[in-house]
Structures are given as C-alpha cells and as structure tokens.
Amino acid sequence: MTTESSQPDHDQPRHARPGANGADSPSGPHWPSGWPAGPLAAGQPDGHASSGGAGTGTATVAGPETSMIDYVGASSPHLGSGPLLGLEARNVSAWFGSNKVLDRVSLDMQPGRVTALIGPSGCGKSTFLRILNRMHEMVRGAALAGEVLLADEDIYHPSQRPADVRRRIGMVFQKPNPFPAMSIYDNVASGLKLAGIKVSNKDHVVETSLRRAGLWGEVQRRLRTPGGALSGGQQQRLCIARSLAISPSVLLMDEPCSALDPTSTRRIEETITELQNQVTIVIVTHNMQQAQRVSKYCAFFLAAEGTPGHIVESGPTEKVFDDPVDPRTADYVHGRFG
Questions:
Q1: Among 4, 5, 101, 118, which is 20 to 30 Å from 325 by CA?
Q2: Nearest to 310 by CA among 122, 138, 174
C-alpha cells in the first residue's frame, strides 16, 4: 500500500506546447524541436485523438513509415510479439499554463493487470491518463515534469516519436467515436491505417480484434454496415477493437462506460476482464462498484481546493476499499464525499 509523501516541490516542467500566440507557456519550457505539433489522428468530435481513429468519415495516415505486425492464432492469450509490458509513472507533475494540476504522481501499472484510477471530478485522473500516451502535450500551454516508462524507456525522451508511443499505448474515450460512415470492417482496419501498419491478412486482424473486444458474434454477418448504426455499447466495443487491431502493449480507458446503459456497461466490463491477461489496462472510473469489479490495483486521486491533484493512496483494490490507510480514502470509497 502506498500513500502520499510530503516531499518538497522540486519538479520543473520540461515539456510544453506553445500557447495560441506562439509564445511559450507561462511555465517557461520550450516545445522540443522535431516533435510533431499535431495528433496521430485529428478530427474527433471531442477534440481528442487516439491510435484507433477519429469521429469523422475520413482517416489520416500517421506518416510515411510503416511496420509489420505478425498475428498468431486467435486463441493466443497475447497477440503480437514479446512479453506483456507495464507502465511506470515517476514523479509526474502537470501544468496548464501557470496552473499546476498534478503534483509528483508516481504509480506502477504492472503488466497484465487492470489498474483503476478513482477520485472526485477535477483531481487530475484524466489528465494523468492522457500523459501516459503523450496526449497532454497536444494541449496549448500544457507542460509536465517527471518520467513515464514503458519497458524501462521514457516515452518523453527526445528519441521517442509520439506516433510510435501511441501505437504502443492505445486510448478508448468516454464517448464512443467510430467513423460513423465507415463500415464496421473498415472502422477496425482504420486503426492499422492510422498507425501506418501493414499486415499480411487484414481479414484475420479484423476478426481477431472484434473477437477480443467481444463483438464478433454480434456483427460477423454485417461487417459492411456502417459503424454508426451500432448501439452505443457496440460502438464502444468497436472502438476497443480498433485500438486492439494494432496490438498495443497498454490500453487506456477514460470512463468508457459513463455514457452507457447497465447492460452495455456489463458487456464492456466483461470485455475488460477477458482482456486483462492480454494487455495492460488503465481505466478511469467514477463508479466505485466498477472499480471493484474490474481492477486488481487502484489509485485514489484527490485535489483540495486550490491545490494540484495527487495520489493519496494506492494498492490492491481489495485493500484500498476494505482496509484503506488514509481516512480520506475510506470516506471517498464509502460515498461520504465526491
């Protein structure tokens, strides 16, 4: 069990995107030369980008480079090559302009495990999630300090390309965002195109991805119908399939069930459970019962008025909910505030 520390604030921002007027943010750091200013895929209705695509009818290729993914049998517990990988955040702080929103967050998100981020609105959970695949830097005036390690490599090192990072660390957003005019098949395949990935058997990748997302049985006879014609829960699973098509090491989920009905929520949770031994998952949720159902590890974020968000306590989910160290954790998970 880990609780917050009282270390002095020595962190300094080292990554930022220039403000709208072209000047650096009030925090002072410069946008590193050679970094792309734009997202991997632009045009999503919520202004976000992901390795899985966007909410418009067109797709944009990430760049001239392509890579190959070798898929093994659909029954394999881990598609792609290599062992499961985890993420580790070390002393991550974040700013929007001069406003510090996260303070020295450290969290070990172990491979093949679902880690849940819980806490009241406005405590920095979603900001932290976006830092984990370099989406925070897409916001003008945003800056951060600290490290995020994937396979012991800092994803913010100047040698790391954002597009490559987002291939390995996928994102599923709160609102389902399939390409509405694209077919179900093409929605899944678009994840490959957006990431600049070529595969030898696209049909197999599409089927395998839909199976992993728990959607194949419902759509296998209508793969050429528009993705926008699916129900909300099916659209969300389609977005999960699109992200899985590029075989990411980590899948980030930002409140993926908040806009869904109970039946669809249950199916998404079943999908998360089925995926946990295939890919490392980090999920933001305000649903305490959901955190208990799907996660093995939990981190409680909190931000007092006028102060940045931080982790109060983290540990095995059962321990955090049943025997927390900090009384604020107990108050939150038992519904006394938030």
A1: 101
A2: 122
Residue 156 to residue 134: CA distance in whole angstroms = 8
The answer to whether residue 55 is domain-embedded is no
Domain residues for the domain of 176 are 113-120+155-333
Closest CA to 97 of 144, 143, 132: 143
pLDDT given for residue 61 in this prediction: 31
**183 DSSP assignment:** B
Name every residue whose Cβ is closer than 8 Å to that of residue 109 and which is 6 or more positions away in sequence.
Answer: 86, 87, 88, 89, 115, 250, 280, 282, 297
Q: What is the pLDDT of residues 125-168, one digit of tens each?
A: 999 999 999 999 889 899 999 999 998 999 999 999 998 999 99
Helical packing angle, 232-244 and 184-194, nearest 10°: 40
Dump strand ranges (E) for 181-228: 197-198
In a domain, 14, yes or no: no
Query: What is the chain's mean pLDDT, rounded?
Result: 80
The domain spanning residue 228 has which CATH number? 3.40.50.300
